[in-house]
Design goal:
The complex is a heterodimer of chains A (120) and B (856).
Chain A: H1 16-26, E1 30-31, H2 32-42, H3 51-64, E2 67-70, E3 85-88, H4 90-114
Antiparallel strand pairs in A: 1-3, 2-3
Helix pairs in contact in A: 1-2, 1-4
Chain B: H1 4-11, H2 17-37, H3 40-80, H4 82-111, E1 122-126, H5 136-144, E2 149-163, E3 169-176, H6 180-184, E4 190-191, E5 206-209, H7 211-218, E6 228-231, E7 234-241, E8 254-256, E9 274-279, H8 285-299, E10 313-316, H9 317-357, H10 359-367, H11 372-408, H12 423-442, H13 445-448, H14 453-459, H15 467-502, E11 513-519, H16 528-543, E12 548-554, E13 566-571, E14 576-585, H17 589-593, E15 597-600, E16 614-618, H18 619-624, E17 635-637, E18 644-651, E19 666-670, E20 678-685, H19 693-701, E21 709-714, H20 715-758, H21 760-768, H22 773-806, H23 819-839, H24 848-853
Parallel strand pairs in B: 3-8, 5-7, 14-19, 16-18
Antiparallel strand pairs in B: 1-9, 1-10, 2-3, 2-6, 2-9, 4-7, 5-8, 6-7, 11-20, 11-21, 12-20, 13-14, 13-17, 15-18, 16-19, 17-18
Helix pairs in contact in B: 2-3, 3-11, 4-9, 4-11, 4-12, 9-15, 9-20, 10-14, 11-12, 15-20, 15-22, 15-23, 20-22, 20-23, 22-23
Chain lengths: 120, 856
């Protein structure tokens, strides 16, 4: 796949919802609604993704190759077949790592400039 | 209770097809989950408001994204077959451009407001309830007590000599009540307009000049305010310059508030009063009309004749200004609409063929899971890409069309600027493009409705075609042919009427003649003797110029006189001839203008020798007098002196108003008898008359700079000006018909050639079974001609209806002849057959073996 050899920097910076989604998915497979609830909880209710925004972002991440749709379901009997499950790809992982590194560097720069002492 | 989840599913339709196909189910599921989790009405309201704002934000974003993909796909598809795309865009650009151009002129003339404040309340009164000649008090009395007008203004326009220190000029002067500018709510660009009391005796020695005159005569110098100019000898102070956009009542150079007191600028002869007014607010046109008619009946009961020949009319100012060309503009718009429809039918046919050819691709995509709406969306985007680029390109063409059309059409408000491409026009073009785009997108969906993925993929071959598609394409060809024939019949009719105009015998010879006007109003030549001396000197000077063959002069020259003096002449022991144009002329006039003497002879040169002065009449007069050429030698009683005159000769009848209108009876009397204050000189020259214009003018100006020499042009130029509108309409109709013909030919060609491509297999079998190439070609030709024949039948019916409107364009258009239908029909049929036949050359390259092999 060509996208795996692409330089991940071209995808950065990630939008906040996308970053959160990739974070959640790096912990395991999720369906759309689960992603939404998890992000809502983690952001203390600040990032409340509507379905359109959620699936729009998912659609884009699928195209970019960050995630793939998963065929496996936890329990086919319990679940609505219309629910879609997604899994992060190696490229997605590299992208979320790269974004984390970028944010860390930014944070360090800010701390130095603003004179905020290291919490350690 | 409303099922809210259904409502939400409806909302999801706002998303583009592909996105919806992919996520509709998941989103619907998720909404149910959220609804299940929401507790209490507060959370439910929050859920809905969140869902709504989410759709509002994300649906347009997904639409743009997906349409962008579709567009890129469409462009790649068009890139592979650029010729058909270029033809379609070109056809649309021409059609949309032509219609947008004509629409922009239509909208400028008919739909837009005039450059006057609150123009919808302005009216013209075609019947004065007051007598302007009775002075200011009478006018003010009437105006102040009007129940329907808030304000009114009265004016009269005529030509005068303007002397501002340099060469004298001939200008059009509107003498008006002082409130004309305030009534129309127009401010001066420089200086000021009139104040209320400036139309009273003693205060009315002021004028406002037009922007054009300011530029031409004063070089745009702002210090002219306060300077004095002489109008027909009267000294008047320039107080202001009108804005460049202002030209009312039309082609005016000077406004003077002397209308109630013609003593300031000496005036004689007849002049026409016009009255305009501003309706009181809240009054409808109907109410105002009734009150106006009652007003006239009350103030001036005698003027209303019982035979209904004098009906007081109140017309909206814009209607009044556009009425002359309104019908023509509407006819032209309809003609353009026909071209537009032809183009649409053509592009529809093209897109249909494309879709039919891509049947396999579409069926395959359908089999791979693309929904029907997904394919419709793709096709709509493809079609809209064509129509929108056609429209964009068309706007450039529209600008050109509008400029040409605008230059010829608005005669009334000549110097007013029309911003040709404004929001009216843009909306028109965009609406046109969108409607066609959507129509062309939806139409091929009939086709997709017929695609059955399971069977089609297996069975699709290049040679298979849906019979319904074929029928639809044939119908589209018939439509194109019908519209084109309607246009061809129209252009044949209009064109032959125009040719008749061109070949009309005018009664004079416009080639090789230079014409010049001089006016002695307000100059030092006031007595009859002085005028005669001046005119003789002019004649002598022109005569002595090298290359000048004959010189003459006349009061009213054909093709350039708007106002004529006419009267009734009693023929001795014969009938009265009424409506006779009374024209003073100088000996040599008939020779100079190329009118033939049919009987008798030209004026003698010494009037004093003859006891009864001679008069020359034209053929029309001779005919109406019932004497014919034998009228020579008879006496007539002239209405201008009530003395007997002897008819010395008969000349050919000149068509005064150009080839469209018959010439009426005329009587020419010798100018020497009582020289008028203005004359038009005619010099016939050898060679191109345009080369003589300057020297002829200079020869006269050299005599006295204070006498304006104006309308210096060739007689041919004047003829061209009278023919301008007929020529414009003829060229437009011919051009548009040519455009339609081109489109229809392309349509016929592509149907025939596609019929061969799509039936290649079948034709190959026929050839293999022994059918000759000629037989195959005839077969294809016969099938290709059927829709053309249907189209011709429909077109004849359409043309018969259309012809009735055409005769309003100019005089002489007549659609009743059979030739007008037969010739264009045969022409179109031959072209169609020729086109279809040339398309069948494709048959020659069919290799029967290959064609049959393609089956497997």
């Amino acid at each position: 796949m060509t996208s795996s050899v692409k330089d991940v920097d071209q995808f950065l910076p990630l939008s906040l919802p996308v970053f959160h989604m990739l974070l959640s998915l790096s912990e395991g497979e999720r369906h759309g609604y689960a992603l939404k609830r998890e992000i809502l909880q983690r952001s203390d209710g600040r990032i409340n993704l509507g379905s359109g925004a959620l699936y729009g972002a998912i659609n884009k991440m699928l195209e970019q190759g960050f995630i793939v749709e998963s065929d496996e379901r936890p329990d086919a009997h319990l679940d609505d077949e219309r629910r879609r499950y997604y899994r992060i790809t190696p490229l997605g992982r590299r992208v979320v790592h790269a974004e984390t590194a970028r944010l860390r560097a930014l944070l360090q720069l800010a701390e130095v400039r603003l004179g905020i002492p290291d919490p350690v | 209770m409303i099922d809210v989840t259904k409502l939400y599913r409806k909302l999801l339709r706002l998303y583009p097809a592909s996105f919806r196909q992919e996520y509709e189910g998941a989103m619907d599921r998720q909404f149910r989950d959220e609804q299940r989790d929401a507790q209490g009405w507060k959370e439910n309201v929050g859920l809905w408001s969140h869902a709504l704002s989410d759709v509002a934000i994300s649906a347009p974003r997904e639409l743009v994204r997906e349409f962008g993909q579709d567009l890129r796909f469409a462009l790649r598809a068009y890139w592979r077959r650029p010729l058909s795309a270029v033809i379609a865009v070109g056809t649309l650009a021409l059609a949309i451009g032509a219609s947008t151009g004509v629409f922009s002129v239509t909208s400028a003339l008919l739909l837009r407001t005039l450059p006057f404040g609150d123009a919808s309340r302005l009216v013209e009164l075609r019947f004065s309830p007051f007598s302007a000649g009775n002075g200011h008090a009478n006018f003010a009395e009437w105006r102040n007590h009007s129940s329907y007008l808030e304000n009114a203004s009265t004016f009269s326009t005529s030509e005068m000599n303007l002397n501002s220190g340099r060469d004298a000029l001939r200008v059009r002067v509107t003498e008006t009540s002082a409130n004309l500018f305030s009534l129309l709510d127009v401010q001066a660009q420089l200086g000021r307009t009139f104040v209320p009391e400036e139309d009273r005796t003693g205060k009315n020695h002021v004028i406002v000049i037009s922007h054009r005159l300011w530029q031409q005569a004063y070089g745009g110098n702002p210090s002219l305010i306060g300077s004095v100019a002489h109008l027909d000898g009267a000294a008047l102070t320039i107080i202001g310059v009108a804005p460049s956009r202002f030209d009312y009542p039309g082609n005016v150079d000077v406004w003077a508030p002397t209308v109630f007191d013609f003593e300031v600028i000496p005036k004689h002869g007849a002049f026409i009063w016009q009255t305009i007014g501003r309706l009181r607010p809240g009054l409808t046109m109907r109410q105002a009309r009734q009150e106006f008619q009652a007003d006239v009946a009350r103030v001036n009961p005698k003027s209303l004749r019982p035979d209904n020949t004098s009906i007081p009319q109140m017309v909206g100012l814009r209607d009044q200004l556009s009425s002359q060309i309104r019908t023509s503009v509407l006819i032209l718009s309809s003609v353009v609409l026909l071209v537009l429809l032809t183009a649409f039918a053509n592009v529809a046919q093209l897109l249909l063929s494309r879709t039919a050819e891509r049947h396999q691709e579409l069926a395959l995509r359908s089999a791979l899971g693309a929904s029907r709406s997904r394919l419709i969306q793709q096709l709509t985007v493809e079609a809209s890409a064509l129509t929108l680029s056609g429209a964009a390109l068309g706007m450039t063409f529209a600008l050109l069309v509008a400029r040409v059309a605008g230059a010829v059409m608005p005669a009334q408000l000549a110097t007013q600027d029309y911003t040709l491409l404004d929001w009216h026009v843009l909306c028109f073009a965009i609406a046109l493009a969108l409607i066609t785009g959507i129509a062309f997108g939806i139409m091929p969906t009939w086709l997709i409705g017929r695609i059955h993925p399971s069977t089609q993929v297996v069975r699709m071959h290049a040679g298979t075609t849906e019979p319904a598609t074929g029928r639809l394409r044939s119908a589209l060809v018939s439509l194109q042919v019908a519209f084109t024939l309607t246009l061809l019949v129209s252009s044949f009719t209009v064109g032959s009427a125009f040719l008749r105009l061109v070949h009309t015998d005018l009664g004079f010879e416009p080639a090789n003649a230079v014409t010049l006007k001089v006016s002695l109003e307000g100059t030092s030549y006031q007595s009859g003797g002085a005028k005669w001396q001046y005119y003789s000197a002019v004649e002598e000077r022109l005569q002595s110029l090298p290359g000048v063959k004959a010189v003459g002069a006349v009061n009213y020259l054909p093709l350039s006189s708007n106002v004529l003096m006419a009267g009734t002449i009693q023929v001795e022991s014969g009938p009265k001839v009424s409506g006779v144009v009374l024209n003073g002329s100088l000996p040599g006039y008939f020779r100079a203008v190329g009118s033939q003497l049919i009987a008798g002879r030209d004026f003698g040169f010494d009037l004093s020798k003859s006891p009864e002065p001679p008069v020359i009449v034209n053929e029309a007069f001779a005919r109406e007098s019932s004497f014919g050429p034998n009228i020579v030698g008879r006496r007539i009683i002239a209405p201008w002196t009530f003395r007997p005159y002897l008819v010395g000769g008969v000349v050919t009848t000149a068509r005064m108003a150009g080839p469209e209108y018959e010439g009426g009876p005329q009587a020419y009397w010798p100018v020497e008898e009582e020289p008028p204050s203005a004359l038009t000189f005619v010099a016939s020259v050898s060679g191109d008359p345009r080369n003589y214009l300057t020297q002829c003018r200079d020869a006269i100006v050299g005599l006295d700079r204070n006498v304006p020499v104006y309308e210096v042009k060739t007689l041919d130029q004047s003829l061209n000006e009278t023919m301008e509108r007929p020529r414009f309409y003829t060229t437009s109709v011919l051009f548009l018909a040519g455009l339609a013909l081109l489109i229809a030919v392309a349509g016929v060609y592509s149907t025939s050639s596609r019929a061969i491509i799509q039936r290649e297999h079948e034709l190959g079998v026929r050839i293999a079974l022994g059918a000759s190439i000629q037989q195959i070609r005839t077969l294809i030709l016969r099938q290709g001609t059927v829709p053309v024949a249907f189209g011709i039948l429909a077109g004849i019916a359409g043309a018969a209806g259309c012809g009735l409107f055409l005769q309003h364009l100019f005089v002489g258009i007549n659609v009743s002849g059979v030739t007008a239908f037969v010739v264009p029909s045969l022409f179109l049929l031959l072209i169609a057959i020729g086109t279809a036949w040339s398309a069948t050359t494709r048959v020659l390259v069919i290799d029967p073996i290959e064609a049959i092999r393609a089956e497997h």
